[in-house]
Amino acid sequence: MTAAASVPPKIDRPLNVIVATDCGSTTTKAILIEKVGGEYRQTYRGEAPTTVEAPFEDVTRGVLNAIAEIEELSKRKILDGDQIITPCRDAQTGVDMYISTSSAGGGLQMMVTGVVQNMTGESAQRAALGAGAIVIDVLASNDGRLPHEKIERIRSMRPDMILMSGGTDGGAVTHVVEMAEYIAAADPRPRFGVTYKLPLIYAGNKDAQSQVKKILGDKTALEITDNIRPVLEKEYLAPARNKIHDLFLEHVMQQAPGYKKLIDMAGAPIMPTPAAVGLIMETIARREHLNLIGVDIGGATTDVFSVFDGVFNRTVSANLGMSYSISNVLAEAKLANIMRWVPFTIDEQTLRNRIKNKMIRPTTIPQTLDELQIEHAIAREALRLALIHHKSLATGLKGVQQERTISDVFEQQTSGRTLIDMRKLNLIVGSGGILSHAPRRIQSMLMMVDAYEPVGCTMLSVDSIFMMPHLGVLSTIDEKAATDVFVRDCMIYLGTCVAPIGQGKDGDTCADYAITFADGRTVKDRLFFGDLRHYPLESGAKAAMTMHPAKSIDAGAGPGAPVTREVLGGVVGVLLDGRGRPLQLPAEPSARVAALNKWFDAVDLYPKD
Amino acid sequence: MAHSYTPGLTVADRMVVRRRRLLPLPGSVLVKMGDRVRSDLAVACAELPGKVYPINLANQLSIAPDEIKDYLVKKEGDAVQKDEILAENKPLIKWFKTEIRSPVAGTIESLSEVTGQVLLREPPRVLNLLAYIDGTVVETIPRQGVVVEAHCSLVQGIFGIGGEVWGELLVAVATPDEPLEPGHLIPEMKGKIVVGGAFLPAETMAKAKELGIAGLVVGGIHDKDLRALLGYDLGVAITGTEQVGFTLILTEGFGTIPMASKTFRLLSAHTGQKASISGATQIRAGVIRPEIIIPRTGASTDLPTDFQRTGIRLGDSVRVIRDPLFGKIGEVSALPSDLASIPTESEVRVLEVTFANGARAVIPRTNIEVIEGSS
Q1: Interface membership of B2 toward A (CB under 8 Å)
Q2: SS3 B236
Q3: Does domain A14-104 have CATH number 3.30.420.40?
Q4: CA angle B159, B160, B162 (to 5 degrees)
Q5: Which residues of chain B are within 8 Å of residue A300 when distances are taken between CB atoms?
Q6: Domain A107-236 class?
Q7: Which residues of A touch B343 (CB under 8 A)?
Q8: What was the ipTM of the complex prediction?
Q9: What's the gap in Å between the CA of B1 and the closest CA on chain A?
Q10: Residue A379's closest CA among A424, A311, A313, A333?
Q11: pLDDT tens for residues A346-372?
């Protein structure tokens, strides 16, 4: 029964009209996708408050409300009472399929366990994160907590699900059995529903399966799957991830109000929102042969996705966000790091009070320019911190023996290095309100450039209206439809950032460059340190760029070596960043404010007062 | 566009509230339908399982895990006292004898011949769930808890810290824009709930703690004072378990912000009466607001249990909840349907608010909240 729960069904009828929803924590967003002249396009959208909580306590109410908005705008009859009309009855009635993702009610919250924290513990964490979960704790035999502290911790948490890993197949069973004993002693209870058993997936040493079954079989809804680290050198996450999806549908979602109805309404399995976004990111990277970083910065959490050399990773920074969690960005980044992006002076007390007021009234929006600039400053720090978190988890396997040759003698590196190599990065994809709805697209671009400090030539893009989750789940049913809409309606290319690596004093030469546009026009100039320059280059257009960096500066081919590259345009164009890498801002407040204003003016970032 | 609007805070003189009182794990319900209860009465109780202490006997006795049964003095399910011998070896020479004693009083819950561990569990602790408000039991949920209903006045705050407390309500300031200074607090306020005006300085917090005041209700505080009070920077607004000596409720927000006059009037009208307050706040899906519940004597009929709204209407009393006019209160005087451009260049839905002095301002709809409830 579980094997089929998350497998998308085979659809044998043509899909010409599709309605998709994403049930978020606060808003349910619906989009209508129609086949127009052989191509799929996103045509209408609607949204309504999510209705998981009292007084409605039925997620389908919000879904029907959001779809009713589409009905109103499109004049297509989609609803018949509380039912979605499927398949299409005629050109103006019904849809061929309804699909949905969900992160309502706080998403999927998991606890994971391993034996060695940075080996099986991290593998279990990667499996859970990749399946779209928020990991609320990682317990391991060597995590530094005493046994009774571990038991107390398990007891005090109310996860939706537990993933247990530990040990290689055929290795010692003691530690993993010990962890099973701790879990049994703690008798953890699920977050929702008093009467049902907590789902627990065992994906550890296969030799311990029978003992784990004996200890936890009666106390939990135990599922056993393949070991995620069958041998130390190999991570095998797919079976555990699939099992997480199955149990999410079979157990967790069944407890959430109205989800039984939602599952019946949908023509494909409901996916956790981040899992769907991850799927679409993987699809882009695979199709375009790219290394990419994707970010979805929400009100409560920030998800980071990466695909480098075909390896997919996802992390979620559960308390970094722009509304509910905005105050936590301040707590983690510290005031000075936020202030360094604010182009005016403001006293600490006022800023702190403003941030707290946004936390307690999270739906408010900046009304004045200075408020907008403060939010953009906070967003830079949230994005930066979330990437640091991602880098620490998106690593090669730790504890693995490496084969080395004599040539490695001078650059020996430990195992478990981060996979995020900014030099190899081709594309940054931004999503979430602060990036998708910035009044000027250049604001989104500069926020991501300042936070991520891309080096060499890097493309940047944003999700137009946050439809990646919908397209992720659609790609499991019809990849062409998902790709069509993604390329034409979802992804907005901002342009290319060119940033040489190295530092220098303001006014020193960074590089000489020449940009030749498609119409034959060539711009030749010198980029100085401390400069930020902007050249419009429309979406789809290309330009040839040659850069001769200064002696110690690396434009991508090594210090002082010239580079010729094709750069791609976008709604912003080409950004030449001579502010140095790593990026350094003046420490003295008035010099910092002057530098920020110079850069912001150079790219016309904000309206003039 | 979405019909969404910012739900306001309820400030109602007469309404009916129902509070679900649920145990964290199954237990027994101690009251029945129709019972009158007081805030400090236990309505349900449960036994919280005792703490677990694992001891690895195999390691401590230097034996194989599957041998532990041979060395145990006690067996699974037995009760043990603190320092009582659990297991011992039997060496030929007495000097080499090792005794493993129990670190706690409790029972032996389980033995493992795989890991060599013994799990000891302390005796269960009884948890009493109190009624929290004076009212009537209108529903019992077997083994889980009850629903208590009260005819009351209700004031919702925007943010609070600390748990449920109750006591006599006292208004210590003359006007809603007056800050609550240390001089306003006197020893007779011990165990009571004190209402201030626009601001609560750090010195007043210290004095409240010293005097043993149960709760404070004010317009605003500075974030830096909250940080000093808690000892850490609060990252997300999920509160209710803090223990700072009193429960604190903000009615307006952070900064110096006069308490809404409707709120101040209502609280002033009930000075001297008993109130139950909770600082628990959860600003996420499933919003929980801090609250002040003042039970009314003598039941009335046909009181609202909730304020169901369909949207913002002309004439609604609203509070601006974002700078530059943060904290100002006025009336909705126009609701244009078209999107309007604001100074940030965003195109948003707006409304016009007229303030008491006749001034008007155009404000994004998401930046106001309706002050809800009858008065």
Answers
A1: yes
A2: coil
A3: yes
A4: 160
A5: 236, 284
A6: alpha beta
A7: 367-369, 607
A8: 0.88
A9: 7
A10: A333
A11: 999 999 999 999 999 888 899 999 999
